[in-house]
Amino acid sequence: MHSPVLLRRQDAPARDLEAYIASGGLAGLKKAREIGPEETVRMVTDSGLVGRGGAGFPTGRKWESVRTAKDPERYFVLNADESEPGTFKDRQMIDVDPFLVLEGVLIACFATHATRAYIYVRGEYRREADLLQRCAAELGAAGYLDGLGPEGHALAIEVRHGGGAYICGEETALFRSIEGYRGEPMSKPPFPTVAGLFRKPTAINNVETIANVPDIMSRGAAWLRSLGTERSPGVKLYSVSGHVGRPGVYELPFGVPLRELLDLAGAQQDLQAILLGGAAGTFVFPQDFDMPLSYEGAQQRHATLGSGALIAFDHETNLWRVAERLGSFFAHESCGQCVPCRVGTRRQHEMLEALAEGDGRGSERDLLVRLSQVMTDASICGLGQTASTAVRSLIDAETKGLLAV
Ligand SMILES: Cc1cc2nc3c(=O)[nH]c(=O)nc-3n(C[C@H](O)[C@H](O)[C@H](O)COP(=O)(O)O)c2cc1C
Ligand code: SF4
After folding, report:
1. What integer best gives the mean pLDDT of the chain?
2. Cα separations (Å) of 398 from 30, 252, 259, 300, 388?
3. 2, pLDDT greater than 90
4. Which residue's C-alpha comes closest to atom 1 of ligand 2?
5. What's the half-sphere exposure (Cβ side, CA atoms, 13 Å) at 190?
């Protein structure tokens, strides 16, 4: 039985600073201040922590680039936009342990010499934005931001409300949104660590990624590596919804079989499939439910963990209808900046509508596959590049005769 790490205060949330410190909080920040920025980044690198926002990029490497940047002005951004359908673990993380998240932000700012921190919270998460704002103010009033800002001043933390679009979670679109423009992605390179927010070196991390940092500092890099697998150290939060008895957020060490998570979430009935990794993820069928939930385990089955969303579907579900809903989501959320995605997501949706109604022809599947290739190869950002991932996995499954309806 796994005892929770990130969600350890779930039953008794520490939403005031006194309670947080009384339950061991701020030990990570203390340690970071003792060993200095360079060693702090080294510990994060050695722990093997990778981003939980979907891309799985090594956090220490990102921080090191910003720490060693030439420009004295640089930023840290916390990505709490969480707009992927079926994903709600960052909201729970903030709700249960806002100070743990903020302690991670302070350590990140200290390690990268950030001159200011921005916290970008999904527009609909008003309560969580207010909570973070209040907790940041408490930390400031108690002097914990002192000396973390430029030239020994207090660090400024700004909480921003998200622009209400899925694309605003993409890092470069998020920067544009903070800057006051439409949330439209920019081509990379340059990468954010070189020219990010306001074209300054910027480290950006997901809420769950950052919540790991205080414990890495206080318990050591080897501690994180003692959990999970060699290539996926640590624990993961999963947002589980759909045809399960106990939908919610679950924490497990990496490497646990998918079936175990489904059991925990009360998936009693015989499931047809799950959508793993959110709207941009892949359909996974029962013959793969023994898959270890780790980055490498998913990769071996041509799946993706994404940000850890799982939506379960029973045998009554028409998965083409699910794909049509996903297609509608992507067509609606495409920012329209580049043709493969702007036009491709619309054409994809039209074809999925026909398939969901049962009047799609075989040629439509071929066309969907070719369209998917173009969108994946030629779209500017991750939205267009992954808008057809789930559809492709469904076509493969249909070919293998795995669909019930
Ligand atoms: C369309 C799109 C939406 C995204 N939405 C989010 C999001 O809501 N939250 C998030 O942390 N990352 C999101 N990402 C990933 C971010 O661009 C970025 O990789 C992440 O914030 C980096 O943090 P990490 O290294 O800690 O994962 C999104 C990416 C794309 C392409
Ligand atoms: S891929 Fe889609 S969302 Fe991304 S920049 Fe192009 S049009 Fe916008």
Report:
1. 95
2. 55, 31, 22, 20, 15
3. no
4. 384
5. 12
> Matching CATH topology for 17-225 and 319-399?
no
17-225 CATH fold:
Rossmann fold (3.40.50)
Pairing of strands 271-276, 248-253: unpaired
Verify whether ligand 1 is closer than 6 Å to residue 122 (CB atom).
no
Q: Residue 337: which pLDDT band, with cuts at 50, 70 and 90?
A: very high
Would you say residue 362 has pLDDT above 80? no
Residue 375 amino acid letter: M
Nearest CA residue ID for atom 6, ligand 2: 338
CB distance 171 to ligand 1 below 6 Å: yes
CA of 377 to the centre of ligand 2 (A): 12
Q: Is 239 near ligand 1, meaning CB less than 6 Å away?
A: no
Residue identified by tokens 């423009």 is: 181
Tokens found for residue 85: 């359908």
Does any ligand 2 atom lie closer than 6 A to the CB of residue 336?
A: yes
| Reported pTM | 0.97
70: number of Cβ within 10 Å: 6
Ranges of each domain in the chain: 17-225, 235-314, 319-399
Looking up tokens 């909480």 gives 159
Cα-flanking dihedrals φ and ψ of residue 76, to 5°?
-120, 135
Give the number of the atom of ligand 2 that is nearest the alpha carbon of residue 185: 5
Ligand nearest to the CA of 338: 2
Spatial contact of 122 and 228, defined as CB atoms under 8 Å apart: no
The DSSP output letter for 68 is: T
Q: How sure is the predictor about 335, in pLDDT bands with cuts at 50, 70 and 90? A: very high
Give the three-class secondary structure for 319: helix
Given CATH 3.10.20.600, say whether it is the number of domain 235-314. yes
CATH second-level architecture of 319-399?
Up-down Bundle (1.20)
For helices 98-112 and 89-96, give the axis angle rounded to 10 degrees. 100
CA distances from 355 to 279, 362, 375, 391 (A): 18, 10, 20, 11
Give tens-digit pLDDT for 63-103: 999 999 999 999 999 999 999 999 999 999 999 999 999 99
- In the chain, what are the helix, strand and coil shares in percent, each to the nearest 5? 50, 15, 35
CA dihedral 315, 321, 325, 327 (to 10 degrees): 120
How far is Cα 187 from Cα 168, in angstroms, rounded to an integer?
15
